[in-house]
Design goal:
Blueprint (H helix, E strand, L loop, with lengths): L2 E7 L7 H11 L2 E7 L9 H8 L3 E2 L5 H6 L2 H6 L3 E7 L1 H9 L5 H8 L4 E5 L3 H5 L1 H12 L3 E2 L3 E4 L5 E5 L3 H13 L8 E6 L4 E2 L5 E2 L6 H12 L3 E6 L11 E4 L3 H11 L4 E4 L6 E3 L20 E3 L3 H6 L8 E8 L3 H12 L3 E6 L10 E8 L2 E9 H19 L4 H4 L1
Parallel strand pairs: 1-2, 1-4, 2-3, 4-5, 5-6, 9-12, 9-14, 12-13, 14-17, 17-18
Antiparallel strand pairs: 7-8, 10-11, 15-16, 18-19, 19-20
Helix pairs in contact: 1-2, 1-9, 5-8, 10-14
Bound molecules: cytidine-5'-monophosphate.
Cytidine-5'-monophosphate binds next to α12 and β17.
């Protein structure tokens, strides 16, 4: 993502969480620059912020070095978004008053960019009428407020005031950066390609999957604003640029990678996972010997990734989509498969004749509990777009608005 965020870190015990926010934004290719207030510097050091952001840290309004390197006006204008994390009660009050007595408050006053704040404070301070008034004013001023969570606070008291989860903060910043893309703020996992199960060091059980469909799905999800992780088996297909890519070889590795990537809002299992693997792969290359019968290979079942994810008790994604490659009675078999796997939707391809593998085009039936739809002779990219439309229609009704958007 060719975007940049200015993070202002103010004085609160939760300041250390800004380090994780920086790390996560950098993982999404967001350039991060930090402004550290005097209070913030009591909790985190400029060195940790500089190391994680990869940029100098600014703190002094009257520093000749800071002003010549990056003046406060440039700081306030050159980034796509400003996020105050954590925002102390004092910084909130300053913003309301339009004070400009340090670099952070001056930058906030001078900016023409969207501003998000993630307050963190003692619950009595949070509930105080002065803070209530201040927040109401900031909302009127167009500031986005990422509401703090309730729970045990650092001071030992219990109540609202704990900095929002890092996930929520990162999603809010990304949403702001990506604009009003329809799937912004949602997270997605796609499995793609074949799996290879070793027979011996050079041979394997594989299949004809090219990874084209899975990659097209990952790309379409990312373009629609979702944050995408693609777990792909071995493929020579180009990898989508905007997804986090995890390359695996076997079904077991694919399952582990998927589990580690959860929780996600959307999971699409498009990989052609080998149903079986060799129980004990041979350590040496099997030799062909005259007059000897071929070696017996004992197979065991691989885990079913789609079923595992669809039937999770916790972390079950809000939407799980499977694919079914069928060669006969396509729709009937796929309808039964949707129920037996526990997924929400299934997309069935007729692969009789093998013409779908590696090809740009496909024909499919989209199957949900509410009914089915034929998608005939379309490209794999078009199929991805049709599925995106379904996902967009599905989410407004089902997803709870992100907390930071409710205020
Ligand atoms: O059972 P079958 O292989 O026909 O199911 C196909 C669907 O299940 C696809 O979505 C595929 O990605 C998924 N699958 C899986 N793990 C397996 C087998 C299939 O995720 N071991």
């Amino acid at each position: 993502m060719n975007k940049s965020a200015l993070l202002i870190i103010t004085g609160s015990i939760a300041a250390y969480k800004s380090l994780d926010v920086i790390r996560r934004l950098r993982e999404r290719d967001v350039r991060v620059t930090c402004v550290l207030t005097k209070g913030g510097a009591e909790f985190v050091t400029p060195l940790s912020l500089a190391s994680l952001s990869g940029n100098p840290v600014y703190s002094d309004l009257f520093s000749l070095k800071d002003e010549t390197e990056m003046g406060h006006i440039r700081l306030s204008r050159e980034n796509d978004v400003i996020a105050v994390i954590p925002a102390s009660a004092d910084m909130i009050a300053k913003m309301v008053a339009g004070r400009a007595d340090d670099l952070a408050s001056t930058t906030l006053l001078a900016t023409d960019k969207p501003v998000l704040i993630a307050p963190a404070m003692n619950s009595k301070m949070w509930e105080h009428p002065a803070t209530r008034r201040n927040l109401a004013q900031l909302r009127k001023d167009g500031i986005h407020i990422i509401e703090p969570d309730a729970g045990a606070l650092a001071c030992g008291e219990i109540g609202q005031g704990r900095l929002a989860e890092v996930d929520t903060i990162v999603a809010a910043i990304i949403h702001q950066l990506e604009g009003d893309k329809p799937l912004a703020g949602l997270t997605a996992l796609v499995t793609s390609g074949p799996t290879y199960e070793a027979i011996d060091p050079v041979r394997f059980i594989g299949n004809k999957s090219s990874g084209k469909q899975g990659h097209a799905l990952a790309e379409a999800l990312a373009q629609a604003g979702a944050s995408v992780t693609l777990v792909t088996g071995p493929t020579s297909e180009g990898l989508p640029k905007e997804a986090d890519i995890i390359q695996v070889t076997t079904a077991e590795e694919m399952l582990e990678a998927c589990k580690a990537a959860l929780p996600k809002d959307i999971v699409i299992c498009c990989a052609a996972v080998s149903d079986w693997r060799v129980k004990t792969p041979f350590a040496q290359k099997l030799k062909k010997r005259a007059n000897e019968s071929p070696p017996a290979i004992e197979l065991v079942a691989n885990p079913d990734i789609l079923r595992t994810i669809s039937t999770l008790k916790t972390k079950r994604p809000k939407l799980v989509v499977g694919f079914a490659a069928e060669t006969q009675t396509v729709q009937k078999n796929a309808e039964a498969k949707r129920i037996s796997k526990g997924c929400d939707w299934i997309i069935a391809n007729d692969v009789s004749g093998g013409q779908v593998f590696g090809s740009e085009n496909t024909s499919a039936v989209f199957i949900a509990a509410s009914g089915s739809e034929q998608w005939k002779n379309i490209s794999k990219k078009e199929l991805a777009q049709k599925l995106m439309q379904k996902i967009m229609d599905y989410f407004p009704a089902k997803v709870v608005k992100p907390k930071w958007k409710q205020s």
